[in-house]
Amino acid sequence: MSQRFLDPTVLTGISGLDLIAKTVVDGFVAGLHRSPDFGFSQEFAEYRAYTPGDDLRHVDWNVFARTERAYLKRYRGETNSLLTVLLDASQSMEYSSHSVNKMDYARYVAASLFYLAIHNQRDAAGLIVFDDEVRNYIRPSTRQGQLARLLSGLELAEPRARTDFGKPMRHFQEFLRRRGLVVIVSDFYESPESIVRTIAPLRFHGNEVVLFHILDPQEIRPVFGEPAILVDLETKQKMEVTPDYARKEYRGKMDAHIADLGERSRGAGMDYFLLRTDRPLDAALREYLNIRHERN
Amino acid sequence: MGLFAPWFLAGAAAVGLPIYLHLLRRHSTTPRPFGSLMFFEPRTQSSIRHRRLRYWLLLSLRMLLLVLLAVAFANPFINRPAASVSSDTLVLLVIDTSFSMRAGTRLNDAKREAMSVLASRRSSQPVQVMALDSQLHPLTQPTEDSATQRAAVESVQPSDSRGSFAELARAVRLTADNIRTPIELHVFSDLQRSNMASSLAEMVFPDTVTLILHPSVKSGVANWSVESVNAPGQLWGNPKGGKPSHVQAVIAGYGTPAAARTVSLLVNGKTVATKSVQVPANGRATVEFPSLDVPYGFSRCEVRIDSGDGFPADDGYRFAVERSDPERMLFVHAASDSRSPLYFGDALSSAAESAFAPQVVTIEQTANLSPSKYAFVVLSNVAALPASFDSELLRYVRGGGSVLVALGTSAAGRSRVPIFGDSITEIHDYSRELSRGRERFLTVGEIDPSHSSVGKAGNLSGVKFYYAVGVDAANSRVVARLSDRTPLLLDKKIGEGRVLLFASGLDNLTNDFPLRPAFVAFVEQTARYLSGAERHSGARLVDSFLELRTAQEQDLAQALGVEVVDPDGRRPLSLEEAATTQSFRLTRAGFYQIRLANGRQDVVGVNPDRRESNLDVIPDDVQALWRGSPHQPQRASSSGEAPQREEPYGLWWYIMMVALAAALSESWLASRYLGTAREES
């Protein structure tokens, strides 16, 4: 498996999120094996007595045969492994200056995380799709077919409406009662203060919160050869933009926004990571594993 | 404000091109979706407005540039008052110096008027002073030096020439074409009506010339003058025994009442006759003096009247008369021919006022004769000449002598014409050749009137020629031909002399020419032509030309230098001119003494053109018409100011300057505007 399959422009040629996720994660894992600095394994932790309701698949039948007692074999990585992805499906996510728009990139990231979590880590994974409301919720689970449900939920998530963290956040509180890893994938076109103030309560339940800030390179460093009329994808507002302004003032504002958001996020105990849609996806996966490793 | 080439304004339609391009560029800016405009704050609008302003400024500059170019090519102009360019106006002061300005105080009045105009001029204006008679004589170049201008006016002297306003207009038109600046033309003249051209169109000035007339007199004055004199220019022989000569003079009055005038004939300053004549009112009278008794040599004669008018300069008419002995000529004829000397001699004595004394000899008598003693020689019906006389005659011709050869019936036995040298081709006896129901003679078919021998001979068409000799005319000038194109009169130059060949006889057997009056004139003119004694009348007009040497004499190496002594006793010709000039212009009234290139002496009396004696003034309406403003009265001449006129002043230069500034601004603005885009791309 080659590293080039982490390139989002290559992934656009692959149909089906499952295959995309498998391609990304397998390529990413192959890359890890070649790395002497970053270890990854499913390490045995302990045996736990079976209690009704536990998944029979995790029962160590060899021990049961010798002792006639049912024990569950537990691994280190399985502790508190619950991944929930909050996917922003507002219309601004539809923007693209090249072959991969932000929504597709977010889908690739989410699918790869789900594949890595379910297939490799055996973690429970769930999905919340929102814009100004919660549009879809797939509760975290490790059951058979969960990955398919999650990928189907990603494919059904079409951008529409505007981003509003405030309104759906109340529902997030209800959905995220268990401790776990919460990944928010969005372009975060709101004031950093408002974003952090709205999201920070997620940490109160012991969740690890990661902000994947997805931006198109044109949004970070816009280049206009001549004055252009821009249309806001969410508000439909039109505005004439000159190259001079886009080159100077806009870049400063965007850089300040990114820096402010990252600083405020880290200040609130959350992780923040900027993802450009023209970059490979391994950065997001590496970030996920890092956090998971630290939690264990 | 106007346009010299308004059609170029159609080029202004090109402004549609930048408008189209700019609007096309604007419309091509289609809205582009963007993630969020939250970082584009309202204050960015000012930046866009600034850009938009620059955008429209660029468009405006481009449109302005195209419009300016179209307007510049249309060549607009404004009408500026001519006064605003008065410093460029050339002031021409023209003072009439024609003969009539000698009357009374006309010339002094004109000079005083010119001085007053000079005094009223601004010192920065260039002034040129000229004198006008039959020609326009510049006395100064255009100058701002008032001393030079005043000195030129003071130096003006009257002439004896006739004034010509047509020549004034022609010269001023030429000047106006050359300098291309407005001209303020002041004419100081007595404005004689007779100085006008035959049509007013010849006197019209260009639009850039402003004519201001300064008349010396307001109306014409009465004047008597000797209009013309008819007198012989030359007399021959003893004054006691010669034929009497009479003098006829015409006395004219211009604007005069009927009055009796005393007319005198003066010879060499002495009054030899006086007569009284009654001149009708504003009319003419003829006076005749029956005898003109002048001594040998040149006599300076004059007819004078006692006019008592204000213009005494035209009261006399000068003419010169020369009295000399008759010249001898030799007439050689066959012994059998007795008619030709009779007819020729009678014609010569009656026509030429006894200017030539013929010596008639037969062929046999020529043996011991020397032709050089004779003015010319006539050979009539000569079959053969003695060898000695033949060779002597040929030498005489080659040395400059002249011979008339008349071929009679004796030519039938010869193959060549004596002296003339050309061959005889055939003998025409028309009385026999044309006998079949037709006339037995031929007449003159064509004639060259420019030849001196036939120029004044009158009509030869009625002369009947029964006999003529055909001669090869290849080397001769044919003066006359018969109707069958047989050469009748031929002229041939041999050496320095010439031979005239008459291809028929001088008797009444071969033709009836001797019986006709034209024969007398022919003999007279031929005699004068062959002898070289053609003398014109002893009176000439001022500005006429006197021929000093002929074209043939011009080519002669041994020709003498001419000499001219004017009425003041001065020699107006330089040595080089005396050696080469062919003619001389008689510019002064009085008696000129002349020595011609052929050695002859002559005296001519020169008189002013009598049209100058008519002192009538150009009517006021014609003056106004000449000035070009028939309804505008003459301005006060003393003010010396030209009437205000307007002239077009082109503006294309200034418009091109503005267009250049617009082009530079457009380049600067466009480079800044488009430079930003290049940097960003």
Structure description:
The complex is a heterodimer of chains A (296) and B (681). By secondary structure, chain A is α/β, with parallel strands linked by helices. Chain A folds into two domains: 3-34 and 80-295, Rossmann fold (3-Layer(aba) Sandwich), CATH 3.40.50; 44-76, no CATH class. Chain A has ten helices and ten strands. Chain A has helices spanning 8-11, 17-33, 61-67, 102-120, 146-156, 166-175, 192-199, 217-220, 243-267, 282-295; strands at residues 44-49, 71-75, 82-88, 124-130, 134-141, 181-186, 208-215, 228-232, 238-241, 271-276. Chain A has a six-stranded mixed sheet, sandwiched between helices. In chain A, strands 1-2 form a two-stranded antiparallel sheet. A two-stranded antiparallel sheet of chain A has the order 8-9. In chain A, α7 links the parallel β6 and β7 (208-215). In chain A, α2 (17-33) crosses α4. The longest helix of chain A has 25 residues, at 243-267. Chain A starts with 7 loop residues before the first helix and ends with a helix. Mean pLDDT of chain A is 77; it is low at 1-5 and 33-41. Chain B contains 14 helices and 33 strands. Chain B has five domains: 2-30 and 42-78 and 667-680, no CATH class; 90-220 and 619-641, Rossmann fold (3-Layer(aba) Sandwich), CATH 3.40.50.410; 223-324, Immunoglobulin-like, CATH 2.60.40; 327-531, Class I glutamine amidotransferase (GATase) domain (Rossmann fold), CATH 3.40.50; 539-607, Immunoglobulin-like. An eight-stranded mixed sheet of chain B has the order 18-17-19-20-26-25-24-22. Chain B is elongated and about 145 Å long. Chain B starts with a strand and ends with a helix. Chain B is an alpha/beta fold. Classes of the chains: A alpha/beta (296), B alpha/beta (681). At the A-B interface, β8, β9 and α9 of A face β2, α2 and α14 of B. β8 (228-232) of chain A pairs parallel with β2 (32-34) of chain B.
